[in-house]
Amino acid sequence: MSKLEALLWDVDGTLADTERDGHRVAFNHAFEQAGLDWQWDIGLYGKLLKVTGGKERIRYYLDEFNRDWPRPSDLEGFIAALHKEKSQIYGDLMAQGGIPLRSGVLRLIREAATSGIRLAIATTTTPANVDALLEQYFGSEGRKLFEVIAAGDVVANKKPAPDIYQWAIERLKLPASACVALEDSQNGMRSALSAGIETVVITLNDYTSHEDFTGAALVVDQLGEPENPCQVIKGDVDAIELVDVGLLKQLHGVS
């Protein structure tokens, strides 16, 4: 078994709870600005999260929940323009600083970096959205912390396909067996596992708590802080309060 050399992070729902109070809100603002009467409430958005990727999510919404809406002649162009506007709105929302990092994320990132473990991002969100998040939470340090950023349309197939993880691993020039993935969804877990990453850690959120995480090495409610310990949902580990580098090395060694 290779030693642990890199942590690959999902973004939305993993680094921060950006789905409900970030992307969903930005979509609704974009719809309003486009003169559309669409409104994605919290419940509907949970159903739409079955599909990864913002443009794909709009298309899925039309196909499954708004079939009677008259399609423009250039539907793909319409969706692309709508999604571009949504991404701009999302960036503005992130700049306002209203969505904090999830518990334990900053601690683990800094601990890993100090320990010489490399960091990468593997996400279906756009590069612009990743840049907005990194700038908000890490400032100019963000691009230095994360050596590889695999985002958006750099690959043809989005999660649960393995492409985005494979792209990141190739650029890290590491075997998949040297990596641990941190995810929040079944689609993300399946993507990482299919790419050959054997150790996947899941941090649940409101949208993914019902999903099947068979195959994950560990499922917790959060990564945890000393004053706010995590709760283990699934995993063959002793009583823990934090997901730290030592625990990740332990999980990686037995996967």
TrEMBL record:
<dbReference type="InterPro" id="IPR023214">
    <property type="entry name" value="HAD_sf"/>
</dbReference>
<dbReference type="InterPro" id="IPR044999">
    <property type="entry name" value="CbbY-like"/>
</dbReference>
<dbReference type="InterPro" id="IPR036412">
    <property type="entry name" value="HAD-like_sf"/>
</dbReference>
<dbReference type="InterPro" id="IPR023198">
    <property type="entry name" value="PGP-like_dom2"/>
</dbReference>
<dbReference type="GO" id="GO:0016787">
    <property type="term" value="F:hydrolase activity"/>
</dbReference>
<dbReference type="Pfam" id="PF00702">
    <property type="entry name" value="Hydrolase"/>
</dbReference>
<protein>
    <submittedName>
        <fullName>HAD family hydrolase</fullName>
    </submittedName>
</protein>
<dbReference type="InterPro" id="IPR006439">
    <property type="entry name" value="HAD-SF_hydro_IA"/>
</dbReference>
<keyword id="KW-0378">Hydrolase</keyword>
